[in-house]
């Protein structure tokens, strides 16, 4: 009898361990494309597709283009809804999706706004069919793993506050909700300190590729006017002109991000919330649990050999008799994506012979303003000589707010 009890106890312990392990596994783990600070993921609607959707926590409802709703899926209408987008309020027709799925994560009988493309496909360089909004995203804990470009949905029983600290830098913060957690109008806000000022509530908005601030706020926190800016995106309305800013620091969940971009829509219109966009987030794994009102940010440490340069194509070089030898390639930079590696040799830089340029001239030539390009002739041991156009990107720096003196640097999208 004692042996039987022990076997039952061991079986129960094993089943409990398996249950806890399964609860920690994601329901869905799918890739997303990060395009100029915006996430795009493949979605199935009524078991048809896949369709390309913008992942937008700032959109309280999902949306689909009339072309997909009418021509491909013949979705039934479900009335109208009043929405506020890009500072304007409008009435929008609503369709009913019997099922919407992202990997194995799904929702049944979900309403979707019928929204024209409005230039989002042009912005993304691909056809965009809709928006994956908070009405789908907030149903269970969700993780935006920007470094790995993965979107993960976890079971409702998964408690992110008890996740193992598997990153050198990790922090938690409490969410403030506008609307009930399961309502179609729920928005999640996080406490953020800008340039060392008192923390304020900003709406988490992965559909915004930079912070969105009132001009008075930007001036109050002494943001610097930016000489360039990224294209603002809008899934639900026309783009507006914007005034761009650079923030020396953005502190969230105990982590500080430096050299962050913000913009002010002109005119401000009917915007209600200032927003925390991907420019301050896309170096983290961001896990959100709306039902428990908690957010977790994690960041691996990335060695930085590039100093304080805020932008560039991601190369360090030294001059030589036959060209400029590459000594370092920034991970994730355009140079890395184009396959340039350490010990490759640049023979030409923008129609100038690299061997005739001093080291300072070479490295300055490889740091043009974000969004602009440098054309190089690069010689590799395995692929010979080839012509490559490299796009300059902007970088932010990340450190714990209680800094140990080390700093990590992460790539931002082109033109940001």
What does this structure look like?
The protein is mainly beta and 416 residues long. The protein folds into three domains: 28-145, Cathepsin D, subunit A, domain 1 (Beta Barrel); 156-299, Cathepsin D, subunit A, domain 1; 311-395, Pdz3 Domain. Helices cover 13% and strands 45% of the residues. The longest helix has 23 residues, at 2-24. It is globular. The model is unreliable at 13-22 and 402-416 (pLDDT under 50).
Produce a short descriptive summary.
By secondary structure, the protein is mainly beta. It has helices spanning 2-24, 66-72, 120-124, 134-137, 215-220, 334-337, 359-365; strands at residues 28-31, 33-35, 38-45, 48-55, 62-64, 77-85, 88-102, 105-114, 130-132, 142-145, 150-153, 169-178, 187-194, 200-204, 211-212, 224-225, 241-252, 255-266, 275-276, 285-289, 294-299, 311-312, 315-319, 324-329, 345-349, 352-353, 373-380, 384-391, 393-400, 408-414.
Beginning-to-end CA distance, first to last residue: 69 Å
| Helical coverage, percent range | 10-25%
CATH class identity of the largest domain: Mainly Beta
Number of domains: 3
Unreliable runs, pLDDT <50, ≥5 residues? 13-22, 402-416
The CATH H-level homologous superfamily of the largest domain: Acid Proteases
CATH topology of the largest domain: Cathepsin D, subunit A, domain 1
Number of DSSP E strands: 30
Q: Which whole number gives the mean pLDDT?
A: 80
**Strand residues, percent:** 35-45%
Please state the structural category: mainly beta
Radius of gyration: 24 Å
| CATH architecture group name of the largest domain | Beta Barrel
Biggest pleated sheet: 16 strands, mixed
Q: Count the helices. How many?
A: 7
């Amino acid at each position: 009898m004692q042996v039987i009890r022990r076997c039952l106890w061991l079986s129960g312990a094993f089943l409990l361990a398996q249950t806890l392990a399964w609860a920690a596994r994601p329901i869905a783990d799918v890739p997303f494309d990060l395009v100029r600070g915006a996430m795009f993921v493949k979605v199935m609607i009524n078991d048809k597709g896949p369709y390309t959707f913008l992942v937008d926590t700032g959109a309280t409802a999902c949306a689909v283009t009339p072309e997909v709703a009418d021509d491909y899926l013949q979705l039934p209408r479900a009335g109208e809804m009043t929405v506020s987008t890009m500072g304007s309020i409008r009435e929008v027709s609503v369709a009913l999706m019997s099922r919407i799925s992202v990997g194995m994560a799904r929702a049944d009988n979900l309403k979707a706004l019928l929204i024209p493309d409005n230039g989002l496909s042009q912005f993304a360089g691909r056809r965009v069919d809709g928006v994956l909004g908070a009405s789908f995203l907030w149903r269970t804990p969700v993780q935006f793993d920007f470094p790995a470009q993965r979107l993960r949905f976890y079971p409702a029983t998964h408690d992110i506050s008890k996740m193992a600290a598997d990153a050198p830098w990790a922090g938690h913060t409490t969410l403030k909700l506008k609307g009930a957690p399961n309502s179609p109008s729920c928005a999640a806000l996080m406490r953020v300190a800008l340039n060392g000022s008192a923390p304020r509530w900003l709406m988490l908005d992965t559909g915004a590729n930079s912070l969105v601030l009132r001009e008075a706020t930007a001036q109050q926190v002494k943001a610097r006017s930016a000489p360039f800016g990224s294209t603002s995106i809008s899934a639900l309305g026309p783009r507006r002109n914007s005034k761009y800013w650079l923030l020396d620091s953005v502190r969230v969940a105990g982590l500080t991000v430096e050299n962050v971009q913000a913009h002010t829509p002109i005119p401000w219109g009917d915007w209600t919330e200032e927003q925390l966009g991907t420019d301050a987030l896309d170096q983290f794994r961001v896990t959100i649990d709306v039902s428990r009102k908690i957010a977790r940010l994690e960041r691996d440490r990335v060695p930085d050999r590039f100093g304080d340069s805020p932008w560039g194509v991601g190369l360090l070089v030294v001059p030589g008799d036959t060209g400029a030898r590459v000594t370092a390639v920034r991970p994730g930079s355009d140079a890395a994506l184009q396959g340039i590696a350490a010990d490759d040799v640049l023979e030409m830089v923008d129609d100038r012979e690299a061997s005739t340029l001093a080291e300072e001239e070479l490295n300055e030539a490889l740091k043009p303003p974000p969004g602009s390009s440098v054309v190089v002739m690069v010689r590799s041991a395995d692929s010979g000589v080839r012509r490559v156009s490299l796009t300059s990107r902007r970088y932010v720096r990340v450190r714990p707010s209680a800094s140990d003196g080390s700093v990590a640097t992460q790539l931002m999208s082109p033109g940001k």
